[in-house]
Amino acid sequence: MSKILLEIEKLTVSFETDEGVFKAIDDVSFHVKSNEIVGLVGESGCGKSVTALSILRLIPSPSGRIENGKIIFNGNDLLSLDIRKMKRIRGNAISIIFQEPAAALSPLHRIGQQMIESLMLHKNISKKTAWNIAESWLKKVSIPDAGERMFSYPYQFSGGMQQRVMIAMALMLAPDLVIADEPTTALDVTTQAQVFELIKELKQSHTSILLITHDIGVVWEMCDRVVVMYASRIAEEGNINDIFSRPAHPYTKGLLKSVPKLSTKAGRLMPIPGYVPSPFNYPSGCYFRDRCPQAFDRCKKEKPQLVDLGNGHKTACFLAENVTS
Ligand SMILES: Nc1ncnc2c1ncn2[C@@H]1O[C@H](COP(=O)(O)OP(=O)(O)OP(=O)(O)O)[C@@H](O)[C@H]1O
Ligand code: SF4
Ligand SMILES: [Mg+2]
Q1: Residues of 234-251 as b/e, b for ≥16 C-beta within 10 angstroms?
Q2: CATH number for the domain that contains residue 184
């Protein structure tokens, strides 16, 4: 059985804003095993990126604060590592593909220079070897004239090309874990497919991937397990077959019905009515109750906790308690 590479335990992160303090993620627990791809899904604002940034301790401070929890990676709690050790882990053991490429590239330095600096910082290799590795990765992510493009500045690249450079930079170090936050949003369909192939290849070479996406079709194609977030909390978690064939949480059921390719009746899309509430206005009890077609009296009064349905399948819904009891 694969070992657990990353274990997030009861993680709560809050932000202080002009409107007040709110929890962006609340009591979040899940794990990633070695050599697996875990999908983290949920509508906008549910806390996916905040979860990703917390793993690398990149939550903006002082407005953001990790209130509680542990993030155990390869046996070490990342939240208590000194910053020098944490910097060594970033890039080398865990790398991130940001939702926004501008966040990852320095506007002041040439692409090639940024790539070889990152390689030489983490690997004991010569500049020439680093240059060759960087150039080969630019080719792998389909940057035309890769040799010449090594000398370009980020502003000379389109948004999609910048995103591909960032993907190359995250993958070229062959880390133990890649966190990919909507990695292909800015890319055309063909390049998207190429990037997903690269991510799959990486899994073959024993890298685990936490893949954050809105796209349930991508989850089905790529992932071994899925973690569903709703309004700062985990709604459901399970292996890909259980989640797609036996979704237990009404929110997961709603997400699956809202996807064209997976919808049972072709062409009949059923988006989940309503919106994710603002974190300042979460309802009492279950945060999904205003949108839930199966809500009942208890859902107003109590917050559902994750219930274990067996085989690693868990859900935070009172209906599942009735099934298991
Ligand atoms: N730096 C920040 N300061 C204040 N609030 C923030 C900050 N970053 C995120 N948030 C808030 O935290 C909540 C979770 O945001 P997060 O970015 O994790 O959502 P997400 O699930 O990644 O959404 P999307 O799919 O749109 O990327 C949201 O309410 C968001 O507005
Ligand atoms: S706990 Fe109640 S409101 Fe929440 S998802 Fe389950 S049935 Fe719906
Ligand atoms: Mg996000």
Answers
A1: bbbbbebebbbeebbbbb
A2: 3.40.50.300
